[in-house]
């Protein structure tokens, strides 16, 4: 089995305010008031989720990096 080197996450605007980040491969969801806050929270949440776990159970290498996509809604005229 080929292990992935990245954990993919999507950041989108929250329904009422701030931002929400959600991982694709692992069950991690977090939020923050700013992009800086949500990315810091995402990094910490992924580290805590994988701490003491065998990352290969999730199809990941031992120390994966984060690949983050930001979702935007365009303003239509």
Describe it.
The chain has 77 residues and is an alpha+beta fold. It has a single domain (4-70), classed as Double Stranded RNA Binding Domain, CATH 3.30.160. The protein has one helix at residues 35-50; strands at residues 4-13, 19-23, 29-32, 60-70. The protein has a four-stranded mixed sheet, covered by helices on one side. The longest helix is centred in the middle third of the chain and has 16 residues, at 35-50. It is elongated, with a radius of gyration of 14 Å.
Structure summarized in a few sentences:
This protein is α+β, with helices and mostly antiparallel strands. Helices cover 21% and strands 39% of the residues.
Estimate nothing, just give the exact number of structural domains: 1
Classify the fold: give the CATH topology.
Double Stranded RNA Binding Domain
Q: Supply the CATH architecture.
A: 2-Layer Sandwich
Strand content: 35-45%
H-E string? EEEHE
Number of helices: 1
Gyration radius over CA: 14 Å
Task: Describe the strand arrangement of the main beta sheet, using strand numbers.
Answer: 3-2-1-4
The low-pLDDT segments are none
**Any idea of the CATH class?**
Alpha Beta
Question: Residue share in helices?
Answer: 10-25%
Distance between the termini: 48 Å
Mean residue pLDDT: 93
Instruction: Please state the overall shape, judged from the principal axes of the Cα atoms.
Output: elongated
Question: What's the total number of strands?
Answer: 4
Instruction: Look at the helices and sheets and give the structural class.
Output: alpha+beta
Q: Main sheet?
A: 4 strands, mixed
């Amino acid at each position: 089995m080929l292990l992935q080197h990245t954990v993919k996450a999507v950041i989108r605007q929250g329904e009422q305010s701030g931002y929400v980040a959600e991982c694709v491969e692992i069950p991690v969801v977090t939020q923050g008031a700013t992009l800086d806050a949500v990315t810091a929270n995402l990094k910490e949440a992924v580290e805590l989720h994988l701490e003491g776990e065998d990352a290969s159970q999730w199809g990941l290498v031992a120390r994966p990096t984060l690949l983050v996509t930001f979702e935007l809604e365009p303003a239509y005229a």
